[in-house]
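Issue 218. Parser rejects a valid record. Input:
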Amino acid sequence: MNKNGYFRADSSSKSKVRLFCFPYAGGGASVFRKWQDALGSYVEVLPAHYKGQEDRIMDKPISSMKILVDEIYEELSLLADRPFYLFGHSVGSRVSYELALRLEEDENSFFKGLIVSAGLAPDRPEVNPIYNLPDREFFEELSRYNKTPEDIYNDKALWSVFEPMLRANFKLADTYCNKDEISISVPILGLRGTMDPEISSEDLLEWGRYTQKGFQSENIEGAHLFIDTNPRQVLSKVTDFFNNCA
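Output the parser choked on:
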């Protein structure tokens, strides 16, 4: 188990399947902390521990999609030795897609499916970038996404710790766009919150252009961060997807 890297794989795990998880901007590996117990020993849940977040708070955060994907792929490829899936929420869906392209290039036969949650298709640029806004406006926009506590902004010492990570996360999200429209050879499951103002049902369906093996979409009760508020329904859809891809 590498305590300083992106993934903390358990060498003693007898799991048959691995699920690599990538959070939304501002979220860390702890977003997925309850998933392992919920999914059981059949699946090993491996959330990405990003630099600059949680137990890697002292590392410089990454704001470049290419650099982030390069670093993650270096580790992920060493763990791709059994059937596995990628799950990404919001900007995490785009990180997952870019990793999927690398896996396709390497013709990895263990890659079984991609789950994109609350994310726009890769060719859709962010129309309202926030990463370069002045402090107060940046904080207010953050709060619109995930109800960031006011105490974090008011405590300047605390804000000085969190701000670089948050700006890097949102720069990653706000500046990404891939117009190549390359489809992958595994199925894609798309998830959307029923009350999510950031992505419509039509937006989600655009992911169908990115697979040669079938696309399905599902609605989850909740707003943009439904993986926090309604994990039970999310995991039910994820489990169904595993079964359909087996």
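Fixed in the parser; the record now loads. The mean pLDDT is 94.
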